[in-house]
Structure formats: C-alpha cells, structure tokens
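User: Design a sequence. Structure:
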C-alpha cells in the first residue's frame, strides 16, 4: 500500500463524530466506574436540599414573609438537624465502646460473662484457686458491662471497676471492694487464694446477676430489707 493511498483512506475517516456516534461515545465514557462513583448519593442530595432550604429561608424577603413564624420554623429545622447528628454520630460511639470492651482488667479478653464463669468453675474444680478468682472477677466486670451498668476505661483497675459498680449496686459496695482485693491479691501479689475466697467472689457475682440495679442509691436503700 502506497503512502498516497493510505492518506486517502485516512482522510475518509471523519475527525468529528456525528450526533449518534458522539452520544454513544459519551454514554460509554460516563458508564465508567470512576464517573459512577462520583455521582451524588441520596444523602448528598438531601444535604444539598437542606442547605438550599436554609439559604432561601434566611434571605431578607423570606424573613419578612415568615414574620413571627420564622422562629418556629428555625427551631424545628435545628431540632431535626440535632436528631440527625445524634443518630449518625451515636452509632460510632457505641462501636468504639465495644472495641474498647475487648480490653478487660489490663488484658485483651473478648469472652462473655457466661464463658468466663464456665472457665472459672473449671479452674475451681482443678483447685486452681488463683485462676478461678481472677476469672470470676472478670465475669463480674464483663456482666456489668454487658448490662451497660459500667463503662470502664481499658486501663481500669479492679478497684476502679468495684467503685463504678457500687453506683448501681450501693448495697454491694463492700462485697465488690472485697472481691477486687481478692483479685489484686492473687493476680499481682502472688497469693494462692483458696476455696473460701473463690466462693466469696462467686457469691458476689451471683447476687449481682439476680439484682435489679437502683436508679439511685436512695432507691436501693429503700428496697433493702431492714
């Protein structure tokens, strides 16, 4: 094929596509993933609509037209925005709380209270009293967390958890303190523990499991037997 014939064939190809070709090329281009990802979502459209509404609401002309109703409308809008913020940002907060809950008494532990009780009972049968006491106190803390009665920080100590738990269970404050002391003794001071000490911690766990938390300390005291 000569150079001249090649140039003639190239000159026959239109450099500017006709209407149908241009539309087809545009549709193919816009169908690419990067364009679809850039399209506004439904939430984007709602946000834009709210912004436009507020912008129009506060124009001088609309302010005059609304008169005394403006304050009511603005209050409703602000309440709706506040509710949306609580709904949107409340969930991540719970997620963070659940993530932090994996650290319990200085160690990573995702076991439930029921699982910890089973492990504590197994350790007690093997007369591993130190391990049984540690596990049973962890069960106390985990059970209170599962009931949303306490929310200890990842580095919270046994005594911190006992003090926090005493708020919904003021009548058990002394028993909680004693259980925390037992945990610290076997966990950090190397004491071996014994069956009686384990039974004391386990009894505290069982009482807390069966009790209804007080709305305030006065309610708990009024409900306690004389």
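Assistant: Done.
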């Amino acid at each position: 094929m000569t150079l001249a014939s090649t140039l003639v064939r190239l000159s026959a190809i239109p450099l500017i596509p006709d209407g149908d070709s241009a539309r087809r090329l545009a549709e193919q281009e816009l169908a690419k993933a990067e364009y679809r990802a850039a399209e506004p979502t439904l939430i984007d459209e709602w946000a834009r609509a709210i912004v436009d509404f507020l912008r129009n609401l506060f124009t001088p002309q609309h302010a005059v037209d609304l008169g005394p109703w403006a304050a009511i409308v603005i209050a409703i809008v602000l309440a709706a925005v506040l509710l949306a913020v609580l709904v949107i940002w409340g969930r991540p907060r719970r997620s963070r709380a659940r993530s932090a809950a994996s650290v319990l008494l200085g160690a990573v532990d995702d076991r439930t209270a029921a699982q910890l009780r089973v492990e504590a009972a197994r350790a007690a049968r093997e007369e591993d009293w130190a391990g049984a006491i540690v596990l049973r106190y962890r069960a106390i803390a985990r059970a209170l967390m599962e009931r949303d009665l306490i929310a200890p920080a990842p580095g919270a100590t046994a005594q911190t958890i006992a003090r926090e738990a005493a708020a919904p269970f003021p009548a058990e404050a002394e028993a909680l303190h004693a259980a925390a002391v037992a945990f610290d003794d076997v966990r950090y001071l190397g004491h071996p523990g014994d069956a009686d000490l384990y039974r004391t911690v386990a009894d505290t766990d069982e009482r807390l499991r069966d009790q209804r938390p007080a709305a305030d300390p006065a309610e708990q005291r009024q409900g306690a037997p004389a």
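Confidence is low (pLDDT under 50) at residues 90-100, 216-226. The two ends are 113 Å apart (CA to CA).
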